Amino acid sequence: MATHYFATDGSYGDATGLVLINTDNWTPSHWRTIEEASDYEERAEVAKRIAEIMADEDESGDFTCIKCNKKRTYDEGSGDCEVCAECCTCPDDAYETGNYCHPYK
User: Which of 87, 88, 92, 100 has the fewest CB atoms within 10 Å, measured from its CB?
Assistant: First the structure.
């Protein structure tokens, strides 16, 4: 069975593998992660991973560190950059400048 998408901007195409994700609560760093993913890394898979991580955080406060991919408790977070304290390489002035280490710096 063929499936196609039709967008309000008039575009349309093959919808095989199309993924819909609510991005209301995404931060600029989530969007940077998507932009930095190369096509061969399949942006849809990266987006699904971000959505899964955010769902985990919403439910328990626990999270999966986006750098080391380990499940961490809320207390093991760095507090500012959405990675665990062990992986955090933020400069001391990151809070003031917004120059966080996430994603993948």
Answer: 92
Distances (CA, A) of 102 to 3, 5, 34, 83: 36, 33, 12, 7
Count other C-beta atoms under 10 Å from residue 80's C-beta: 14
Q: Which SS3 state, helix, strand or coil, does residue 84 take?
A: strand
52 C-beta neighbours (distance < 10 Å), count? 12
- How many CB atoms are closer than 10 A to CB 95? 13
Note the pLDDT tens digit of each residue in 37-63.
877 668 888 898 888 877 766 666 677
